[in-house]
Write a structure and sequence with these properties.
Largest sheet: 6 strands, antiparallel, barrel
Radius of gyration: 23 Å
Helix content: 10-25%
CATH topology: Thrombin, subunit H
Order of helices and strands: HEEEHHEEEEEEEEEH
Strand order of the largest sheet: 1-2-3-6-5-4
Number of helices: 4
CATH architecture: Beta Barrel
Oligomer: single chain
Distance between the termini: 91 Å
């Protein structure tokens, strides 16, 4: 008899849970849109002209004849009203990643290996920041940090009006399974529209330094874009983490990204702030 009396209570609880779940999702979406609208203007497109040389010494020279020039667009996050913008260094210089991948795949050798060694060199010859109105602003890379995969870009002239920028001090730490919102700037084919994705943190790595491993849709996001808590505090920036000598020795036919020794992570905002403080001051406009 007691079991029969419990049945209505259990059904009511189940129905309440079922009804609460869609409401929770709607609340999350609403909160996410507020964060998105507030901060999307700080996420910009960076245009780069990159000259690349690659080959195997002795088999293919790295001279000027082999140089190729390409125009790239990457995502950047404005972190100061002067226009100082943070991007993933790997987005501007693919050299280290390519060489690490070739080494991990068992081809062309890494350090200490015998045989021909694949080499790649790249140089950024032109940089422009695209304003939200489509204005192209001449800029330059003023600071690089290879260990953290960060590069900082600043307009060549002091802007007439302040750029919408994120406050790196308004940050928060997150934990495993916490929900995080990423804001990205899409490519030219989609009109460079701003996009957003919500996902969860799958791991927190504390050594040798703190960083977060994104999961789900977040893992597919672009490097250089910011990540926020659902209440609007900055978590950090998406960058690439790679091993100098490649990954787990997966072999020529192993294409697991972790075997290649590279993965996307979220670098805490506090680390970005400390490195950004070393960037040269903005230049005054010449009269």
């Amino acid at each position: 008899m007691k079991q029969i009396q419990l049945l209505p209570a259990l059904l009511a609880a189940w129905c309440g849970f079922a009804l609460a779940s869609p409401c929770g999702a709607q609340d999350l979406a609403a909160k996410g849109r507020e964060v998105f609208k507030k901060h999307q203007a700080s996420v910009v497109t960076v245009q780069l002209v990159v000259k690349t040389k690659m080959g195997i010494p002795g088999l293919g020279a790295l001279g000027g004849a082999d140089a190729r020039e390409s125009k790239e667009e990457v995502t950047g996050t404005v972190i100061d009203p002067s226009g100082l913008t943070a991007v993933a260094l790997s987005s501007t210089d693919p050299t280290s990643i390519m060489q690490g991948m070739m080494s991990s795949l068992g081809g062309f050798g890494g350090e200490g290996e015998e045989g021909a060694k694949f080499k790649m060199e790249s140089e950024v010859t032109d940089v422009k920041l695209l304003g939200n109105d489509g204005t192209e602003v001449p800029a330059e890379i003023v600071l690089r940090d290879k260990d953290l995969d960060l590069a900082f870009i600043r307009p060549k002239s002091k802007p007439a009006t302040p750029w919408p920028a994120l406050d790196l001090t308004n940050s928060a730490k997150v934990d495993v399974l916490d929900e995080v919102l990423a804001i990205n700037r899409l490519g030219k084919v989609t009109g460079r529209a701003h996009g957003a994705a919500i996902g969860r943190i799958t791991a927190v790595v504390k050594k040798p330094r703190l960083f977060y491993v994104p999961g789900g849709e977040l893992a597919m996001g672009g490097f250089g874009c910011p990540a926020f808590t659902t209440d609007g505090k900055l978590v950090g920036l998406f960058v690439m983490r790679s091993l100098k000598s490649g990954g787990g020795g997966g072999g020529m036919f192993s294409f697991n990204v972790q075997n290649l020794g590279i993965t996307g992570i979220i670098l805490p905002a506090e680390d970005v702030r400390k490195i950004a403080a070393q960037a040269p001051a903005a230049k005054e406009e010449t009269k």
